[in-house]
Write a structure and sequence with these properties.
SH3 type barrels; OB fold (Dihydrolipoamide Acetyltransferase, E2P); 3 domains; single chain; mainly beta; 188 residues
């Protein structure tokens, strides 16, 4: 049990007979009236996002979660299968619980967020960045680095990423998994 003063990004709470992860929050202290907390909550069971306002001091049911490292193995219909690298136990996870699923490739390590009480998988946290090879893009122009112009490129997982003009097929790039944006070219 906690209160609105405990609210932080990533906290998992029980609310309206469902489990939600706090995506964003803002403490508001208006000139008149009591303070309140405006939140954006994401259901871990359905993936739906809702906005909710809690009055200051409101009691919240906080869910205790564990983070466990798993390795991505393969896609199976509307799920992705992950393996515990210590026990070799395989866990299918519904795709809607997996952000940046189109940037994961076989063998990538992720953190599964699991409810400690009932072992239910709540969400999947991909690595902050991934290194992917460009499988298709229009040819680059040598020396064209002066502008911030971007072009579409398809990476090895099939996802499309906007990259600078000098990036070519076969180049490896670092991609931010939070927003799917190009970060830098990787030399190996």
């Amino acid at each position: 049990m906690g209160s609105t003063s405990d609210i932080r990004k990533g906290l998992t709470i029980e609310f309206n007979n469902d489990i939600y992860s706090i995506v964003d929050f803002l403490h508001v202290k208006p000139g008149k009236g009591p303070a309140f907390v405006r939140t954006k909550l994401k259901s871990v069971t359905t993936g739906k996002v809702l906005d909710n306002t809690f009055p200051s001091g409101h009691k919240l049911e906080i869910i205790r979660v564990e983070r466990r490292q798993y390795q991505y193995l393969y896609e199976d219909g509307d799920a992705m299968v992950f393996m515990n690298t210590e026990t070799y136990e395989q866990m299918p996870v519904q795709k809607f619980k997996i952000p940046a699923q189109n940037l994961l490739k076989e063998g990538d390590m992720v953190d599964l967020v699991i409810n400690s009480a009932d072992e239910m998988i709540l969400s999947v946290d991909p690595p902050a960045t991934v290194v992917l090879e460009i499988s298709y893009t229009e040819p680059g122009i040598k020396g064209d680095t002066a502008t911030n112009t971007m072009k579409p490129a398809t990476v090895e997982t099939g996802a499309e990423v906007r990259v600078p003009l000098f990036i070519n097929i076969g180049d490896k790039i670092k991609v931010n998994t939070e927003d799917g944006s190009y970060m830098e070219r990787v030399k190996e």
